Amino acid sequence: MASIDLNSDLGESFGPWRMGDDLAMLDIVTSANIACGFHAGDPEGILKVLREAASRDISIGAHVGYRDLVGFGRRNMDPSSAELIGDTIYQIGALQGLARAAGTTVRYVKPHGALYNTIANDTRQAADVIAGIKAIDPSLTLMALAGAPIVDQARAAGLAVVCEAFADRAYNADGSLVSRRLPGSVIHEPKAVAERMLRLVTEGRMTAIDGTDITLEAQSICVHGDTPAAISIAHMLKDEFAARGVQLKAFTSMDGGANRG
């Protein structure tokens, strides 16, 4: 039976401002990327999500980002190496402490937003994030954009890497994500999302925004928790996968799910 990990970005509410439906998403996904307070999230809310995830035996990842609460971590930044290494260590350490209190463990790291997109190709910032991960816990897996240069860079540095595809984001012909500033960058129709992800899992291919076919090798699929149709998309994916004999399973429990350099 084919299997795939399904992840979502959670714990991103801040005080009275609510972002997504974390509890509903936790009933569907197999891995949860939990905000660490820099781009979103507050300690009380993060701890609550961690406890709920622990009760469901969901795999936990640190969703580290730029220090950018106002921009939700989606604005490009150019921190020094010392800053970025320190920020990476700080965020992972904070989530590890909260996870311990919640009775669970941080298993992987998935950078957020602009940081995620930048380090996909920026070797300097990628090296800083990799260095931060290795400094605090080299056993952590890095979740990275399938096909991006950072995958080989992180493996060469000794990190385990799991490759990720995005269910609700459009792709360029080179395998990069279409900028959120452009029309059509986010796909909102659950059935369309499910069809393209089924093709990815069964064929390793999907259609780019210009109509060309691209090849992607991914062990995890992300549904953004802040997408308006997020819960409907996640339910549709779960149902369609089940109907086609595809099992949802955390990559941390799969043999060979993450590869180390």
TrEMBL record:
EC code: 3.5.2.9
Molecular function, one GO term: ATP binding
CDD domains according to UniProt: LamB_YcsF_like (cd10787)
Top EC class of this enzyme: hydrolase
SUPFAM superfamilies: Glycoside hydrolase/deacetylase
Source species, domain of life: Bacteria
GO terms under biological process: carbohydrate metabolic process
Keywords noted in UniProt: ATP-binding, Hydrolase, Nucleotide-binding
Catalytic activity: 5-oxo-L-proline + ATP + 2 H2O = L-glutamate + ADP + phosphate + H(+)
Task of the protein: Catalyzes the cleavage of 5-oxoproline to form L-glutamate coupled to the hydrolysis of ATP to ADP and inorganic phosphate.
Subunit structure: Forms a complex composed of PxpA, PxpB and PxpC.
Protein family membership: Belongs to the LamB/PxpA family.
Name of this chain's protein: 5-oxoprolinase subunit A
Organism: Mesorhizobium hungaricum
Gene: pxpA
